[in-house]
Write a structure and sequence with these properties.
single chain, 609 residues, mainly beta
Length: 609
Amino acid sequence: MVRRTHERVNPQTDGRATFERQLAGLRRFARPSLAILAIVSAPLAGAIDPADPVPSAETVGTNSSADAPSSKHDTIVSSGLRPPPSYGPPGAGPGIPSDAELEASGAVIEKIFIDNQDIFNLDNPQENTTLFRLADHLHIRTRAGVIRSQLLFKSGEHYSRHVLDESERILRRDSYFYDAWIRPVAYHDGKVDVRVTTKDVWTLNPGFNFGRSGGTNAAGVKLEDSNMLGSGADVILSHSKSVDRSMTQLTAIDQHAFGTWTSVAVNFADLSDGHQRELTVQKPFYAFDTRWAAGVYGLNDLQTDSLWDRGQIIDQFKDLHQGAQVYGGWSQGLQNSWVRRWSSGLTYDEHNFAPVSTWNGVTVLPQDRRFLYPWVQFDLIQDDYLRLWNHNQIGRTEDFYLGTSASARVGASDASFGSSSTALIFQSSATRGFRAGGSTLLLYGDFSGRVADGVLYNGIMDASVRYYVEQSKNWLFYATFLGTKGWRLDLDNQILLGGDNGLRGYPLRYQDGTERAQGTVEQRYFTDWYPFRLFRVGGAVFFDAGRVWGNAPLAAPNLGLLRDAGFGLRFGNTRSGLGNVLHVDLAFPLDASADIAKVQFLLQTQQSF
């Protein structure tokens, strides 16, 4: 079932995001979002300490200096709030011309040094302990070939700071790196040597996972390595139990199969109420200048879907979801800071619904639907990124997209070729960012649905505003507003509001409607505390408000505006790639009925603060 919660899409369409955007009409399998790394396993996990110098594996370019702005498209910080001096590797060696001078002179890259640093810096006495030495000894560092295969430049090519910056961003998106930097370290006779510095994190997760939100628990055991034998491949074997089902899962994902840009993902899962089988093979638009992309995808997914209201199940039915897609894309690459991409493909998407024998309540079945349709898509993307710190993460580099991007896809199904109806099926999205002084504003919107006989069905429009104000090195104000509007939604597609998607003081899936509006204001504090040299610590005080409108099928009348307030701690997982920020919150509902707990305790791992 699709439960509408806002997710901002990265318009750069890297290897992870591309196919997910192109398969927006198909339900993708997602890992349990509440899994957390237990504290007891944290000592075997890794990152750079902003108070430490960064060690170098090479003998050239060892001058330590602060990071500096490197290009007009990848500014470091424009508000005067500088990151700590050691947020980065050794700076450029003495006597090296500036980036602009290297580019103007036509300098050519000669040597590329791969400096992949281990989890802990044993040159630092605070980290040169028995436990941390053992962690480094047991950890298999990412292979140099894996790093080299993700670089957008080679020896013999002209030096381009823009290409180096984009390669950095690609490396930083890998969960097995804490950060990545690429710097010139030597220059002679029109040739420049470049050092690629990465910092590994602990990626093996043999442990117990537990999370709590919306008054419900999720737990499981997992054996996962997101960097199997240093290859960059992610392998997961897990058993988990949530409010929806229990699941035993085996997943393997290699974003760079055979040392190429080909991504392969396989997922097999046996569920208490069905099964999941997925296969993806693709070569995505992995960089701004990528000229072509192609991929195939297949899904067979059987689950019991539940409709929710007031935190309770109000309907249940079996959903057999089968889908497949093949696509190809082409582009002329980056031209004057803009990228234009065309894609075309064929999608098969089918849902068949049936009653559940164990469900004793009201059963209203969605209508079966099948769509087989060709489509064409256009993407417009502006090259404009910004590097910040202490916004959504604690003490690590964050790549904010500030450009303008837009995407539109249109397909046509025909009942005479086996589709449920003749319809125009469309998806679209747009994003824009702004930066002024110490403030950052991010706008996002999307609109999707299908039109049959001049009527819009399953139409969904989302819009969001996210606003950040840097008050000092440690203080940040954050506010967001999200809105959703639905038109003639398929019964299995709910617009929900509750403790699991933005209203932290209330049960999960608490309100069901055809429209939704919600907002959050949050005062964030980023401490300099580094307990056990494993976690970066922050805190937040927050206020949430939201409501739904409309008469959703089977739902009780909505309760109007709901508000909550609360506070919590944030633990940035600096030594592990298994979860970014651990949230520990207490939330207090301000408009709660007598049957709702007056205090909600939440424990969950999220991708951001």
